């Protein structure tokens, strides 16, 4: 009620299970806005927050109402809504959106305890990332745009093994067991949120290799809701048509098993959507410009911006496939959405104050 409208924070929700590429996505997103996001200076070294010039990313684990011991005692997982304080989440996201700083709790992932809170000032863009950004209707209604990263079980398993075995020394059996233990709550509380997402990035095993079970080559779908304000879906060749495209040949080097794009209209949880799909992986990222030049509505500011972003972060996981490509494109779409919201407020300051 008291805030000035030109500073009102745009709020983005990013939902996914842990270990599904949220932090990688956030690094791509903040890079599009020009500047890496870093932990708050001089604060708790175990803070989960990332801050850049424009964007603050908060991790919703900070709204755990039960710490690790509390969860163990009550026999609930971190995915269970009973382990999370949605009232506080709503109050604080609403306050930030209204231009008011908050003292946000910190869930310490090292100790499993709740640490003393940190001050979060209203940024231009607030990203709330974690397990439940779209679970509570009040929080959901505060989101200007929402994304769900939908990693299929096969792929999730392959990534977990890579990280938890190689980097954290866990055994194959314990990884399997932890995925199995989370599954019922994941299915009950996390997965259903995808029906509310404005964009879903779905990651599946390839269909280019018969009976592939390595999980290295990926088929990635970008599912974009129609009719979302300030968001017009990306398309391939001709908007609204159905296309299947194999770009390999003279202008794009592809080794086995090649690359296949598809595009077309579809339905998703009763919503009209456009789906862009990429199966396979790039051999040479500099040739991505060839693919980029056939995509429309990608909200770039200059020719080749997608390719430039992908080359800049070639070392991030997923840069040679649809995960990196679609995360980059969604980053550009969010920049566009943000700029449109700011422009619309500048035009109708009175309208905006009334809202
Ligand atoms: P989160 O923040 O959701 O926990 P991260 O971005 O830290 O996830 O990614 C966790 C791990 O998953 C990475 O270390 C990497 O092994 C794997 N990973 C993430 N995104 C991709 C991707 N697009 N392709 C391959 N592996 C990925
Ligand atoms: C998920 C949550 C974390 C939680 C972890 C392990 O990754 O995002 O907040 O710490 O699960 O939960 P645990 O109950 O084993 O500490």
Query: pLDDT under 50 segments (min length 5)?
Result: none
Query: What is the chain-wise order of helices and strands?
Result: EHEEHHEEEHEHHEEEEEEHEHHH
The best one-word shape is: globular
Percent helix among the residues?
Answer: 25-40%
What does the model show?
- The protein has 355 residues and is an alpha/beta fold.
- Helix content is 32%, strand content 23%.
- The chain is built from 10 helices and 14 strands.
- It has helices spanning 22-32, 68-74, 86-97, 137-140, 153-166, 172-190, 288-292, 305-312, 322-347, 349-354; strands spanning 10-15, 50-51, 55-59, 102-107, 114-120, 125-130, 145-151, 199-205, 218-225, 235-236, 243-245, 259-268, 271-280, 295-296.
- A 10-stranded mixed beta sheet has the order 2-3-6-1-7-8-9-13-12-11. It has a two-stranded antiparallel ribbon with strand order 4-5. A two-stranded antiparallel sheet has the order 10-14.
- A hairpin with a 2-residue loop joins β12 and β13 (271-280).
- α1 (22-32) crosses α9 and α5 packs across α6.
- The longest helix is centred in the last third of the chain and has 26 residues, at 322-347.
- The chain is globular.
- The model has no long low-confidence stretch (mean pLDDT 92).
- Bound molecules: adenosine-5'-diphosphate and 6-O-phosphono-alpha-D-glucopyranose.
- Residues 18, 61, 68, 71, 78, 109, 112, 131 line the site of 6-O-phosphono-alpha-D-glucopyranose.
Secondary-structure topology with pairs:
Blueprint: E1 10-15, H1 22-32, E2 50-51, E3 55-59, H2 68-74, H3 86-97, E4 102-107, E5 114-120, E6 125-130, H4 137-140, E7 145-151, H5 153-166, H6 172-190, E8 199-205, E9 218-225, E10 235-236, E11 243-245, E12 259-268, E13 271-280, H7 288-292, E14 295-296, H8 305-312, H9 322-347, H10 349-354
Parallel strand pairs: 1-6, 1-7, 3-6, 7-8
Antiparallel strand pairs: 2-3, 4-5, 8-9, 9-13, 10-14, 11-12, 12-13
Helix pairs in contact: 1-9, 5-6
Bound molecules: adenosine-5'-diphosphate and 6-O-phosphono-alpha-D-glucopyranose.
Adenosine-5'-diphosphate binds at residues 16, 18-24, 159, 162-163, 317-318, 323.
